Each structure stands twice: as structure tokens, then as C-alpha cells.
Automatic annotation (TrEMBL):
The chain crosses the membrane at residues 12-32, 44-64, 70-87. It comes from the Bacteria. Keywords: Membrane, Transmembrane, Transmembrane helix. This is Uncharacterized protein. It comes from Leptolinea tardivitalis.
Length: 88
């Protein structure tokens, strides 16, 4: 029913999620957050904003266009992402 995946496809399918995980948190909390905090002077607001942007990436995968499901994903990720932002 399905053709076999080539070796490069399997390699990319394994490495792509790893590169995303190593890029998201350093970008939002180590690169973007300190610069925005220095520019605005609003530490708490920028921490919440960076946490919300990280949550926005996670609530849409898997993309199920159901408001309750998206709200559940938002509530599921928000405490952890805000905690990460405050720790960093």
C-alpha cells in the first residue's frame, strides 16, 4: 500500500524534531527574551510574551480544528513554558 522510505527520508525524519527542540528554547529564552527585556524594560510582560509564542508553536501540532482541543493544548503547555521563561 505504501512505498518504502529512502534512507535520507528516515534520517531527516529522525533529525528534524531534534533540531527543532534545540532551536526553540534557546531562540525564545536565550536570544529574544533578553533583548526585548532590555529594549522595553518590561521583564514580566516579555517573559509571558515569549512563553506564549512558544506555546503558539506547540498548540497546532497535531492540527485539529476544534476550539476545545486547541484550548486544552494551550492550557497544557502554558504553565511549563512560563516556568521555563522564568527559570531562564
Amino acid at each position: 500500500m505504501f512505498m518504502a522510505l529512502p534512507a535520507w527520508g528516515l534520517t531527516l525524519g529522525f533529525l528534524f524534531p531534534l533540531t527543532i527542540a534545540f532551536a526553540e528554547i534557546p531562540f525564545y529564552f536565550s536570544y529574544l527574551m533578553p533583548r526585548l527585556q532590555a529594549a522595553t524594560g518590561q521583564k514580566l510582560l516579555i517573559t509571558i510574551l515569549c512563553g506564549l509564542m512558544l506555546v503558539a508553536q506547540h498548540i497546532t501540532l497535531p492540527l485539529i480544528l476544534d476550539g476545545r482541543f486547541i484550548l486544552w493544548r494551550l492550557v497544557m503547555y502554558l504553565p511549563f513554558d512560563l516556568f521555563l521563561g522564568m527559570v531562564m
